[in-house]
Amino acid sequence: MGQKCQFCGGKVVYPEQRLCDKHLARYVEKRVDKVLGKILGREEKRFLVAVSGGKDSMGLAHAMAKTDLQMELLHLDLGVPEVSAPVRQVVEGFARDRELKLHTVSLADHGFTLPDLHDHRRDFRSTTCSLCGSVKRYLFNSFAHEHGFDFVATAHNLDDMAAFAVMGLSCGDLQYASRMDYVSWPEPEHRMVGRIRPYFYVPEKASLVYALTQGVPFSEAACPYVTGNKQVAIKGAVAGVEGVAPGFKLHLTKLVKGHKEPSQTSPNQCQLCGYPTAVEVCRFCRIKQKLTDQVEQA
Ligand code: SF4
Ligand code: ZN
Ligand code: ZN
Fold first, then answer.
1. Beta carbons within 8 Å of 84's beta carbon, 6+ residues apart
2. Of ligand 1's atoms, which has the minimum distance to the CA of residue 118?
3. Mean pLDDT, to the nearest integer, of 161-182?
C-alpha cells in the first residue's frame, strides 16, 4: 500500500515530507508567503516576477498570483534557436490564461544573443553561464527600475541556495556566500530595485511536484550551454550529501545566510549607463560594447 499524507491520509505525491497534493501546495505556498511577509506594506509594492519558462519560475508565478500582490511578469528571450521561441510561447500562454501582464525583453534588441555570448566567452575570460547571469541580473534590475517596480522576484530554490553556499565556501569567499538572502532591499540612490527569492526554502523537488500537481505549464527544454555549469555539478554533489544526511541543504543554507559580512565598498555609477558597478564601466556595458562590435563585423 502507498504512503498516506501525514495530515489527511490522502495519496502522497511528495514522499520527502509525506504530503498529498493539497498539503504540498500548502507547504510551498506557506514558505512563499513567509518570505513575502518580510516586506512590510507589501500590498503597496510592485513586484516583477522573472519567468524563464521553467518549473521553478512558472510555479512561483502561479503561487504569487494566488496572493493579492501587484505583480507583473518579465521574460527574457535569450535568442537560442529552436529553444527560445517555444519557451516564449509557454510563458505567453500562462500569462494569457491568468490575465497577468507580461513584458518580454529580447537580448537581440540589445544587439546580441546567448549564442553570441557563448561564442565570444573567451574574449571575456569567462564562462557562458557567468556572462549570461550578469546580463540577466542587469536586465531584470534595469527593466524593473525603469518601469517603477519595487522588487524583482526570482525563483531560486533551496537547492540553488545550497549550491551557492558551497560555491562560496569552496573558494573560501564567505563574503560572496553571505550575499545570499531571501530579500535584498531596494537602494534607489544606486538605481537598484529590491530582490526577493520566495522559493528560498523550497526544495527543488517540491517545486517540481508543486508545478506538476497544480497543472502549471512549464518548459523542460534544457539550455544547450548548461554543460560545464559548475553550479549544476555542485548541485548534484549537494543532493548526494542530502541523500545520506537529510536536512543538509537547509542547515547549510541557514548557516551561511546567518554569516553576514558587511560590504566594504559602495558601488560606483557606470560611466555609460549609470547603473552600479565596482569598476568604471559595468559588465553589461562592456559585454554589449564588445559583442555588438564583433557581431556587426562577423
Ligand atoms: Fe544562461 Fe547558463 Fe542558464 Fe543557459 S544554463 S540560461 S547559459 S545561466
Ligand atoms: Zn494531505
Ligand atoms: Zn553600464
1. 77, 78
2. 7
3. 84
Q: Which helix (H) or strand (E) holds 49?
A: strand 46-50
Ligand 1 atom showing the smallest separation from residue 117 Cα: 7
Query: Does the pLDDT of residue 295 top 60, yes or no?
Result: no
- 294 CB contacts (<8 Å, ≥6 apart)? 116, 120, 123
pTM over 0.85: yes
In the chain, what are the helix, strand and coil shares in percent, each to the nearest 5? 50, 10, 40
Nearest CA to ligand 1 atom 6: 223
Rounded CA separation 68/229 (Å): 37
Which amino acid is it at 91?
V
pLDDT above 90 for 266: no
State yes or no: pLDDT of 93 exceeds 90.
yes
Pocket flag, ligand 1, residue 229 (CB < 6 Å): yes
- In the reported structure, the alpha carbon of residue 199 is separated from the centroid of ligand 2 by a whole-number distance in angstroms of 21
